[in-house]
Amino acid sequence: MSSTEKIVLKSVSKPEKENVDSMLDWFCKVFDISNGEGSTEIAILKELLSKSIAGEGVTSMELTEKLSLPRSTAIYHLNRLIQMGIAVRKGRKYYLRSGDMEETISELQADIEREFKRIGEFAQKIDELIEREINGREKRARKR
């Protein structure tokens, strides 16, 4: 996980319908990518997923043409997906981070676990420093 990735997770009820659009809508809500059905984010993610599963990437121009979006809008959303660790850019093309959604989520989970381990180690050091500081104050107080 790079220092600029930001992953937000929300608890969202599972979709009532098990079709691609409602499940991608749920996915986008869980990751705080979008708030509504039929959103630009869902359309971009669906196209990115379709291309990645086929072993292909997608350019911002292809998204612009297929989804009738301004290129800046396509790039903005692609960059958000990159920042979250869901997508990657290779040359001029964008890909899902891994070959499919399941593998991408597994990699994100590993990133989160590594980050929590690092945070836990840091928290342990904070506890040790605070304990030393408290013990140092007690020793100084006893000397007085």
Sequence-ordered SSE layout with sheet pairings:
Elements: H1 20-30, H2 40-53, H3 60-67, H4 71-83, E1 87-90, E2 93-96, H5 101-143
Antiparallel strand pairs: 1-2
Please tell me about this protein's structure:
By secondary structure, the protein is mostly helical. The chain contains five helices and two strands. A hairpin with a 2-residue loop joins strand 1 and strand 2 (93-96). The radius of gyration is 22 Å and the shape is elongated. The mean pLDDT is 88.
Keywords:
elongated, mainly alpha, 144 residues, 5 helices, single chain, Arc Repressor Mutant, subunit A, two-stranded antiparallel sheet
Number of structural units classed as domains: 1
CATH fold annotation: Arc Repressor Mutant, subunit A
Strand residue percentage? 5-15%
* Biggest sheet features: 2 strands, antiparallel
What share of the residues lie within helices? Answer: 55-70%
Q: Specify the overall morphology.
A: elongated
C-alpha-based Rg, rounded: 22 Å
| Average pLDDT number | 88
Number of continuous helical runs: 5
Number of strands: 2
Offer a quick outline of the entry.
With 144 residues, this protein is mostly helical. 62% of the residues lie in helices and 6% in strands.
